[in-house]
Specification:
Number of helices: 0
Number of strands: 11
Helix content: under 10%
Structural class: mainly beta
Largest sheet: 7 strands, mixed
Strand content: over 45%
Shape: globular
Distance between the termini: 39 Å
Radius of gyration: 13 Å
Order of helices and strands: EEEEEEEEEEE
Length: about 120
C-alpha cells in the first residue's frame, strides 16, 4: 500500500492558479495509474486528471482540459496538478489517488490508495 499526502490547496479568485502536490511513500514500486479527483459538497467524486502507462498517457476531464496539467517527478515520488484559469465551479476537495493494479484512469473504483484531500476554493 502506498501512502499519499496532498498539499497546495487554498483560496484564490477566479482566474487564479494553484499547484497541488501529492507525495507518495511506502510501496511505490509499481503504480499503474496516478490521478487527481475532486468532490464538491453534495456531489460524487469525479476524476479530474490522471497519468498512466508509465507516464506516457494522460487523461483530463472535459471540464479542466486546457486549464489543468498533471505531471510527476519520479525521483521525488511526487505527483502534481497545475491548475490555471480557475473557476468557482472548480471549488472542491481534491484527492490524489494511486492504483497498483491495471486501472481505468477516470474511475474511482479502480484506485486503491487515496490521500486525505486538500481543499480548493475559488471565489468570484
Amino acid at each position: 500500500q502506498v501512502q499519499l499526502v496532498e498539499s497546495g490547496g487554498g483560496s484564490v479568485q477566479t482566474g487564479g492558479s494553484l499547484r497541488l502536490s501529492c507525495a507518495a511513500s511506502g510501496y511505490t514500486y509499481r503504480r499503474y495509474c496516478m490521478g487527481w479527483f475532486r468532490q464538491a459538497p453534495g456531489k460524487e467524486r469525479e476524476g479530474v486528471a490522471a497519468i498512466y502507462t508509465g507516464g506516457v498517457n494522460t487523461y483530463y476531464s472535459d471540464s479542466v482540459k486546457g486549464r489543468f496539467t498533471i505531471s510527476q517527478d519520479n525521483a521525488k515520488n511526487t505527483l502534481y496538478l497545475q491548475m490555471n484559469s480557475l473557476k468557482p465551479e472548480d471549488t472542491a476537495m481534491y484527492y490524489c489517488a494511486a492504483s497498483s493494479t491495471p486501472c481505468s484512469p477516470r474511475l474511482v473504483a479502480t484506485y486503491n490508495s487515496w490521500g486525505q484531500g486538500t481543499q480548493v476554493t475559488v471565489s468570484s
